Amino acid sequence: MIITPEQVLTALSHVEDPDLKRDLVSLNMIKNLKIDGPHVSFTLELTTPACPMKDMLTNACTNAIKHLVNNQAQVSIEVTSRVTRPLDSSQLKDIKNIVLVSSGKGGVGKSTVSSNLAVALAATGAKVGLIDADIYGPSIPTMFGVTGIKPGATETTGGKALITPVEKYGIKLLSLGFFADPDQPVPWRGPMASNAVKQLFSEADWGQLDYLVVDLPPGTGDIHITIAQSFPIAGAVIVTTPQQVALADTRKGLGMFMMQGINIPVLGVIENMSYFTPAELPENKYYLFGKDGGKTLAESFRVPFLGEIPILQSVSEAGDQGKPIALNNEDLLAKTFSVIAGKVAQQVAINNAQKVNS
Ligand code: ADP
Hints:
Elements: H1 5-12, E1 16-17, E2 22-23, E3 30-36, E4 39-46, H2 54-68, E5 74-81, E6 95-103, H3 110-123, E7 128-132, H4 140-143, E8 153-155, E9 161-163, E10 166-168, E11 171-175, H5 190-202, E12 209-215, H6 222-230, E13 235-240, H7 244-258, E14 266-276, H8 293-300, E15 305-311, H9 313-320, H10 332-357
Parallel strand pairs: 4-5, 6-12, 6-13, 7-11, 7-12, 13-14, 14-15
Antiparallel strand pairs: 1-2, 3-4, 8-9, 10-11
């Protein structure tokens, strides 16, 4: 039996990535193709770690080779991943994707979602950083149990000093909270705040990152505009609660990202505090603040709905104890956050592929 690389690649060019809407060969996902008699082996390089469609894609590849080349072929596929990046990469070239986490108003769980999203992305094997840019109440140091730490500095080869992010649970962290006096009640203001936030991006030694998650201040303001106009952004995730008042503010936030001059892709809406489930009645869901508000909002803006997170005492306790709940694999919410993180990574990959296409 003679199988040629051309035959295999032609067969694989009939397999399409359902998210990216292009075939695996033109997406350059087939690597290290080796053929030895009936044995065909290659690496399938996906664009998201822990891709939900991994098994479906490997089965489709095997079927294509068996049907279109030779049904005696013995196919073995190794799956790896290489996170893609938006095209504009002149700045912050070691950071592949900046993902903003935003909310219309405070207190909806934006910082809780940012921390758990960072943890869940890191659990897929991605290199992750987290910036706390919340000028009103930086809470990431508390949520990661690193309050009171003062980041050090790293000297570059050019002799420039860069801030060294604090590392916890495998995630690199920087917060405005590290640079403020905890007893100082005045929040960062105006240009000083925008400059301080910019420095957290460009004057820090982040190293190579697949995702840099950014916990923004609530609402729409200078910080949002500064970040949007200073750095290439992969997309924004919007956190809301189901109440009508929260949804009204979330609408404004969504509108801002879509404005001309800002134009940041919205990766999707996450609804937090969706329902309450008493521990003794785990099957019961009580929709205290109304049902499906986040989903309806996502539909009206034609952006993905990424998932709902229940109100649970364990979530706030974990935050207060400095161990985001997503670290606890025994907890059902770790699974919820892992699914949400998978969808965020998927949307980032889709947007990046569309930029390459356009
Ligand atoms: P924001 O960043 O939007 O101001 P936080 O993430 O700081 O909001 O959350 C506000 C408070 O609500 C915190 O005490 C947090 O622990 C709690 N909280 C957030 N999400 C949940 C949840 N799903 N279940 C229970 N408590 C939550």
